[in-house]
Structures are given as C-alpha cells and as structure tokens.
Amino acid sequence: MIELHVNGRLHASESDPQAPLLWVLREDLGFTGVKFGCGVGACGACTVHLDGQAVRSCTLPAARASGHRIVTIEGLAASEGVPDGELHPLQKAWIAAQVPQCGYCQSGMLMAAAALLRRSPQPSDAEIDEAMTNLCRCGTYPRVRRAIHDAAR
Ligand code: FES
C-alpha cells in the first residue's frame, strides 16, 4: 500500500510502490488528465507538480512521490487558490488563444507552464522556450508561448 497526497487530499493505493506515478494516478486513483505519451520522460504529456515543481510522472516511482504534495491538471486551479468551479488563468488564456489542436499533450503543457509562471511571473520568450520542453505533435508552440504571455499579464 502507498499513500499519496494528490490535489489536496490523501489517497491510499494498493499499487506497487515502484510503479510509475503516472499509472498510479491514472489507473488507480482516476486522475486521467495525466496523459501517457512516451513513457521515457521525453514528451512531457505526463507532467504533474511535485511540491510545486513540474515533474514527469512516467519515470517517477510512486514511492518517491509519497510524502510530497502532488498536483494534477484536475487540481491545478485549486492549488493556486482559484475558487471552486473557475479555471486557472493559464487555462483561460489557453482557451482565448485557442491553443489546443488535438489537445492530447495540453494538460502536461499547462502544468509545465504553471510551474514556470510560479518561479518567473513575467517570463521572456527565451525563458519560455527553455522551460517548455514538452512535445506537441500538432506544433502548437507559438500559441503556447502567446498564452503564457497573456496569462502573465
Ligand atoms: Fe512521460 Fe512522455 S509520457 S514524458
């Protein structure tokens, strides 16, 4: 058994503690906003926050996340004090800029962007490009950058 603190609540899981956090979150705890892309830490679709930092959950054993504060896209807005039922400023900017195309990678993108804005509230283009290493096969990168700037205003 393993206990994980996810989106403000403690969850108990019977999963193998060495299983990747991605699968425990998705398959056992039902946080399906966390996406599987490559499984080797390359694409960022599985990005969640661990104590406020963006991490790739496909290569992180769940046991290593125990005792830390995990936030998924489902809990992003609440994690930053946004009232219940409202979207995070980045989610609003994403909609306004019509960022997603197929949308599959976008929850990971948003988690990476939120971690960036927390450490750098007004990031430059260079900072955005350096921080946003998530891959998008639709090539939404210019709109991702624009939405991050819009949310930072
Ligand atoms: Fe984790 Fe691609 S699924 S980085």
TrEMBL record:
The UniProt record lists the keyword Amino-acid biosynthesis: no
Pfam families: Fer2, Fer2_2
UniProt keywords, alphabetically: 2Fe-2S, Iron, Iron-sulfur, Metal-binding, Oxidoreductase
Gene3D superfamilies assigned to the protein according to its UniProt record, in alphabetical order: 3.10.20.30, [2Fe-2S]-binding domain (1.10.150.120)
Keyword Ribonucleoprotein in annotation: no
SUPFAM superfamilies from the UniProt entry: 2Fe-2S ferredoxin-like, CO dehydrogenase ISP C-domain like
InterPro entries assigned to the protein according to its UniProt record, in alphabetical order: 2Fe-2S-bd, 2Fe-2S-bd_dom_sf, 2Fe-2S_ferredoxin-like_sf, 2Fe-2S_ferredoxin-type, 2Fe2S_fd_BS, Beta-grasp_dom_sf, Diverse_Oxidoreductases
2Fe-2S ferredoxin-type domain segment(s): 1-76
Protein's name according to its UniProt entry: (2Fe-2S)-binding protein
Taxonomic source organism: Caldimonas mangrovi
Lineage: Bacteria, Pseudomonadati, Pseudomonadota, Betaproteobacteria, Burkholderiales
